[in-house]
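Sharing a chain and its predicted structure for anyone who wants a worked example. Both blocks are below, sequence first, tokens second.
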Amino acid sequence: MAKYVLASQSPRRKQLLEWAEVDFEIIIADIDESYPSDLQPDEVAIHIAYNKAKAINDKINNDRTIIAADTIVVLGNDIIGKPKDRKEAVEILQRLSSNHHKVITGVSIIGKGKEISFADVTDVEFHPLTKEQIEFYVDKYKPYDKAGAYAIQEWIGVVGIKCIHGDFYNVMGLPVSRVVQALQQF
């Protein structure tokens, strides 16, 4: 039995924990991802991550430690989630083009009578993107399971991102070095 449980179906989070050589198994948390409207963006990401971790902790009820995360994209005051279709993905990327936005990953770790929750923030700036570039990316990579309609490690990140300030892996979906530091407290 693995020492940790990752409460996520994200292949990127799985990959990052594997790279860090964390011993884990995946149990998916099926939760309502709504949140109170008065929360700040970093609190939204933590709220959702905590609910995922709590759902799995309640379900397995044992001495393993649960790791859960949720990533959101924030442009101005707007939280941008996962696009529901091609049209929305194109619209989101048009909004992000030439702009700065924040990628916030909330992390919640629960186990052995302890709870740690935090949010990690990375600032990202895109170059201007043409409509053709955006449509090419959406049609080829189908980023419908990604907050902000993009993955930094795919084509659009390679050609479209001007700069980032913060943790690259946070933009992929998990600030893995910070998670590993937190796991040491367990």
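Comments welcome. The first strand starts at residue 4 and ends at 6.
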